[in-house]
Amino acid sequence: MSYKIFLLTSVIITLLLLYQLICPNGLTYAVDQLDRYWMVLSGDQHIPPINTNAIGFVGLKFQDDTTRLIYNVNLDNISNVTGVYLYYMDDSNNRTKVLDFMLETRESNKGFIQVSDKMREGEVTGTICYGGITKEDLDGPLKGKTLSNLRDLMTDGKMYVGVSTKNYHDGEIGGNLFVPIDRVFPDMDEFKWS
């Protein structure tokens, strides 16, 4: 089932990239209008590339005024995850850590033991971390900056997500192509709380 989802995601991303090549101004305008982003994580997108069957995806949604960001990280066929990090990436592909998604998950979801472990032992399939951040959670070169600055860097290809494991301390899978999409998460008013 997860393979079909990632195959579909790859097709969608490919179509968006082709559209960007054909109509670059159209997609740029769309990026300015959207608040939801999606990214596929894989070993071949890691810098440097890693030969692995692990895959994943990251979903991000900015609140309308960009004061909060909701994130969701899902992984498949990966073991002993030690960290999921957001990095600033310079022109030489040097990375500086800006956010630890797993740490933020532990802080914002303290009541959920299944996502509060520092290292997930064994193979992971599904959501490994989710939560919300504000500009105060940003570190490194984005410390003191806004989430609007983060979004601008994402759309400029300057942000990178890497997933570290026990066997790959510098990351087993990663990616830096944030694709703007119309819907990843429902809006808060669409949730039905019981």
List strands and helices in order, with pairings:
Blueprint (H helix, E strand, L loop, with lengths): L1 H21 L1 H10 L2 E7 L12 E8 L6 E21 L5 E6 H8 L11 E14 L13 H9 L3 E7 L7 E3 L3 E3 L13
Antiparallel strand pairs: 1-2, 1-8, 2-3, 3-4, 3-5, 3-6, 6-7
Helix pairs in contact: 1-2
Plain-language structure description:
- With 194 residues, this protein is of the alpha+beta class.
- It has a single domain, classed as Immunoglobulin-like.
- It has helices at residues 2-22, 24-33, 101-108, 147-155, and strands at residues 36-42, 55-62, 69-89, 95-100, 120-133, 159-165, 173-175, 179-181.
- Strands 1, 2, 3, 4, 5, 6, 7 and 8 form an 8-stranded antiparallel sheet that branches.
- α1 (2-22) crosses α2.
- The relative contact order is 0.22.
